[in-house]
Amino acid sequence: MNQKSHVAVIGAGIMGEALISALISSGVNPELITISEKRADRAAELIAKYSIKHAAVAENVASADALLLVVKPQDMADVLEEIKGSLNPAAVVITFAAGKTTSFISNGLGSNNPVARVMPNTPTLVGAGMAAASFGPGVTDTQKQFILGFLAATGKVIEVAEDLQDAVTATSGSGPAYFFAFVEAMVAGARELGLSDQDATTLTVQTLVGAAKLLDESGKSATTLRENVTSPNGTTAAALASFGSSDLNSMVAKAMKAASDRSQELA
């Protein structure tokens, strides 16, 4: 991978666009990024916004040094069949589909292309994403640094063994939805206590955004920060005791296990 390397992106949805933006932010020349998108209006929108190119799938993958597969898990087999035989044999293939292993991608392509597997999440769209990457056999150090480099432009990135990707999916991949569900529950609870929908939403969202910022920037653990705000026999203690009586830890662990199991089923 170098400054003249071509990058092909298959799948130009919301996540695909976020990754295109990250590629450019990490230093990739927009003229070297080519998308393949069936929706002509969507392709035109991205070309105008990012000064990238568009090409048919076979042409796109034939000249790619790196191929980003940003498609749904249920569509992956069909996409692999479509590009099979056209792909540049030296290209590194990067999959962003939950549950799809590097061996699944390799078998679907019927080639020896090196494959990397990445689990991003939706905060990638605002530059605050969390991604975890795993690298299959044959991925070079240069390719690895390229992948980790552009993912760092989406937020934070870590490298994990591939057998931990289902756990990553259950933690950070699906994690934003857990947060949004908790926000919905807090807003509903605030309304039941008499607050207007607008005030309940403002209070809840800013409280959680502020708490996350404090956790991220203070250098203190969640446990320490929780203890700091919990006075003995106070209001916070009463709320946390209610969580405890409902076995919050077990409830969360059970939900994450369900997400991990489903990720395995998608393989």
Task: Write a compact overview of the structure shown.
The protein is an alpha/beta fold and 267 residues long.
Write up this protein.
This protein has 267 residues and is α/β, with parallel strands linked by helices. The protein has helices spanning 14-25, 40-50, 57-62, 73-83, 102-109, 141-152, 165-173, 175-192, 197-218, 222-228, 235-245, 248-265, and strands spanning 7-10, 33-36, 53-54, 66-69, 92-95, 115-119, 129-135, 155-159. Helix 2 (40-50) links the parallel strand 2 and strand 3.
Overall mean confidence score, pLDDT: 95
- Low-pLDDT parts are none
Assembly context of the chains: single chain
CATH hierarchy class name of the largest domain: Alpha Beta
Shape: elongated
Question: How far is the first residue's CA from the last residue's CA?
Answer: 29 Å
Compute the CA-based radius of gyration: 21 Å
What portion of the residues fall into strands of 2 or more residues? 5-15%
What's the total helix number? 12
Strand order of the largest sheet: 3-2-1-4-5-6-7-8
Number of domains: 2
Total count of strands: 8
Considering the protein shown, what is the CATH homologous superfamily of the largest domain?
Answer: NAD(P)-binding Rossmann-like Domain
Decide which structural class fits the backbone: alpha/beta
The CATH topology of the largest domain is given as Rossmann fold
